[in-house]
Amino acid sequence: MPNFNITVINGDGIGPEIVPQAVNVLNVIGEKFGHTFNFTNVLMGGCAIDEFGEPLPQSTIDACLSSDSVLLGSIGGPKWESLPGNERPEVGLLGLRSAMKLYANIRPAMLFQPLKSACPLREDIAERGIDMVFARELTGGIYFGERGRNGDVAFDTEKYSVSEVRRIAKVAFETAMVRRKKVTSIDKANVLDSSRLWREVTSEVAKDYPQVELEHMLVDNAAMQLVKDPSQFDVILANNIFGDILSDEAAMITGSIGMLASASLGDTKVGLYEPIHGSAPDIAGKNLANPIATILSAAMMLKYSFGLTAESAAIENAVNAVLESGARTADIKDESTTEVVGTVEMGELIIAELRK
């Protein structure tokens, strides 16, 4: 029986509610397909600040580096917003991505057919389909550049090297090769030198993938095109900040940010898997949170890190079946909803589908 060691970080807010549902699903997958998943729980984010005085303890880093992959819930919340920027929970996440050398964030944005009515776009636009993947650079750019305050002036620096752009571009093109063979590279090359470098390097990498169509698109136009006609996109390649913003926009046009998973990857199979939504402290502890994005993140772990494609598909099919039945958490309820369920109940429904 294959054994996989997974480090689990519940995090803050709704994290301790949604992550256990994904763990439960993985355990059922283990029973069904003959795998053993070993889980080690560690702290990161606000809860780590409360316990250890820092958002990312060395013990957490060590556990993540020694595991086969990491499953993360969500971090942050109002309780820690008054802390200096370099001490807040989010610093833990940036630090962990850096420690694990995870430079590529893969974010699928797909409109599940049972949720078409939840899409805020016009019906004729939604009918064309929404199925795209973001390849977002994760460890460079303005989030990691030089920053500071000088009197009444504050600054953050956007900076990229050729090697940083090349490696994330390769991820985008490799992803496109197993999809619809189109990459849309996002930049602001009419204004920013860093974007002009981004465009040059991406165009150079494209020469190695003649089967893939490459188009360059300015970020402000991309924001409009995502609303006008999202069906035109296959793989979207973007730097750290543009990818962060545009992928959240894509999340909302698919019906709910509570539905979308993500994978952060580097040069090895060890990855960090997490939902793209935040910690939602306003609904924490109320059994209201949607666990599907975290469950689908676990499915991505099975596929990308462990090579278990059938197991990953089983989870995705179970999620779709539950949605087809009309069961919904409150964030995705619509006129087709037959039953509004809580966090735990949604997890149980997906497990019941898996056991069929």
- Largest pleated sheet: 10 strands, mixed
The residue fraction in helices comes out at 40-55%
Order of helices and strands: EHEHHEHEHEEEHEHEHEHEEHHEEH
Shape: globular
CATH top level class name of the largest domain: Alpha Beta
* Record field, number of beta strands: 14
CATH superfamily of the largest domain: Isopropylmalate Dehydrogenase
Q: Would you tell me the overall average pLDDT?
A: 94
Determine Rg (CA atoms, Å).
20 Å
- What's the total helix number? 12
- The CATH level-2 architecture of the largest domain is identified as 3-Layer(aba) Sandwich
* Strand-residue proportion: 15-25%
Unreliable residue runs: none
Mind explaining what this structure looks like?
The protein has helices spanning 15-33, 46-52, 58-65, 89-99, 123-127, 162-177, 193-206, 219-228, 240-253, 292-304, 309-324, 343-355, and strands at residues 3-11, 36-42, 69-74, 104-110, 131-137, 147-150, 153-156, 182-187, 213-218, 235-238, 261-265, 272-275, 327-328, 339-340. Helix 1 (15-33) packs across helix 10. The chain is globular, with a radius of gyration of 20 Å. The protein is of the alpha/beta class and 356 residues long. The mean pLDDT is 94. It has two domains: 1-103 and 265-356, Isopropylmalate Dehydrogenase, CATH 3.40.718; 120-253, 3-Layer(aba) Sandwich (Isopropylmalate Dehydrogenase). Strands 2-1-3-12-11-4-5-10-8-9 form a ten-stranded mixed sheet, with helices on both faces. Strands 6-7 form a two-stranded antiparallel sheet. Strands 13-14 form a two-stranded parallel sheet. It starts with a strand and ends with a helix.
